[in-house]
Write a structure and sequence with these properties.
This protein is of the alpha+beta class. It has a single domain, classed as Uncharacterised protein PF10387, DUF2442 (NE0471 N-terminal domain-like), CATH 3.30.2020. It has 3 helices and 6 strands. A 3-stranded antiparallel β-sheet has the order 1-2-3. It has a 3-stranded antiparallel β-sheet with strand order 4-5-6. A hairpin with a 2-residue loop joins strand 1 and strand 2.
């Protein structure tokens, strides 16, 4: 079983993208349009995020995305 060793340090909504900075210094982003709930959310809804070691939660739209999945998807998009 593998474990997640890097955790998110910060996440912001900027110009239609979510930009995530990891504790290791890795920074990656993804367009909100990639996820239906984020695509239809308002600026305020996208900007209100809660970070945990395992993921990001948007309480105003009840959306959760795992860091592992986001990193995997980011690597696949290259």
């Amino acid at each position: 079983m593998s474990t997640l060793t890097d955790t998110p340090a910060s996440a912001v909504h900027l110009d239609g993208k979510i930009v995530i900075s990891m504790e290791s210094g890795i920074v990656f982003s993804f367009p909100c349009e990639t996820y239906p709930k984020l695509a239809s959310a308002t600026q305020e809804e996208r900007s209100r995020m809660e970070l945990s070691p395992m993921g990001i939660h948007w309480p105003l739209i009840d959306e959760d995305l795992s860091i592992r999945g986001l990193l995997r998807d980011h690597a696949l998009r290259g």
